UniProtKB/TrEMBL annotation:
AB hydrolase-1 domain segment(s): 29-157
Gene3D superfamilies referenced in this protein's UniProt entry, alphabetically: alpha/beta hydrolase
One of the Pfam families matching this protein, by short name: Abhydrolase_1
Official protein name in the record: Pimeloyl-ACP methyl ester carboxylesterase
Top-rank lineage group of the source organism: Bacteria
Length: 260
């Protein structure tokens, strides 16, 4: 793994890349977008495993305010999901990404959909993992339950291990945005309808932050496959709970001629 800090108008953006031992030069890189509490480090060994299994370079980055990237100057705006498509320009330019595949986890999947539509000239395929297409009661209930858990100092210490003194901002950005009035009727429908590339919606059957209606909505509004892929006996974080099965579900999609 190699890492770099990108200079952007908003400050430094931390990014990392993994290259397989036997790369397939005909295949474009996969870019990972992390979840609401995530960062590069919390992908753990999944990027390296995905790179080796797919023969593709894998790139991940910390969004502004997360991980090793620069702090956010204030509260995260309600438009943060759509805004990430603009922030992606810096990453694309730095790595020279003429063509790429997007894989986003949870809210990172929502952002990946926004990016796929606005960078349609380069996005070959989109994968959403445990992403939300709309706000539903179980999403809000799961977030509130997690918020209670973070009242324990040990839980906040684990968050601070990855985000440093930005940890409280990270937590509040997640909890407060999803429970805000602006998000009461939020949907990803507009972004999904702009996606022009093949799209695979993956979801754990026991996901605690979204029902099966979430991947169904994503699959129904994008070019397909039209049927989402449910991961049995898996919750919200497949890359930690069942990485082997997640990669096994990804490989046929990534190998298809329509995603190259």
């Amino acid at each position: 793994m190699g890492s770099v800090t990108l200079d952007t108008p908003a400050g430094g953006l931390h990014a990392a890349r993994w290259r397989p031992d036997m790369p397939d030069a005909t295949r474009s890189p996969i870019v990972l977008l992390h979840d609401s509490l995530g960062c590069v480090a919390l992908w753990r060994d999944f990027p390296a495993r995905l790179a080796e299994a797919s023969g593709r370079e894998v790139i991940a980055y910390d969004r502004q305010g997360y991980g090793k990237s620069a702090p956010h100057p204030g509260p995260q705006p309600a438009s943060f999901i759509a805004d990430e498509a603009e922030a992606f320009h810096a990453l694309r330019e730095h790595f020279g990404l003429a063509r790429f595949v997007l894989l986003g986890h949870s809210v990172g999947g929502c952002m990946a959909a926004e990016i796929a539509g606005r960078h349609a000239d380069g996005c070959e395929a989109l994968v959403t993992v445990a992403a939300q297409a709309f706000n539903e009661p179980c999403t809000l209930a799961g977030i509130r339950e997690a918020e209670q858990a973070f009242q324990h100092p040990a839980a906040m210490a684990r968050l601070a291990k990855h985000h440093g003194d930005k940890a409280e901002w990270v937590l509040r950005s997640w909890v407060d945005n999803w429970h805000s009035e602006a998000f009461a009727d939020w949907t990803l429908d507009g972004a999904l309808r702009r996606v022009a590339c093949p799209t695979l919606a993956l979801h754990g059957e026991h996901d605690e932050y979204g029902s099966r209606a979430q991947p169904k909505r994503i699959a129904s509004l994008t070019p397909g496959p039209r049927a989402p892929h449910l991961l049995a006996n898996c919750g919200h974080v497949p890359h930690r709970e069942c990485p082997e099965r997640l990669i096994a579900a990804l490989l046929p999609f990534l190998a298809a001629p329509t995603s190259s």
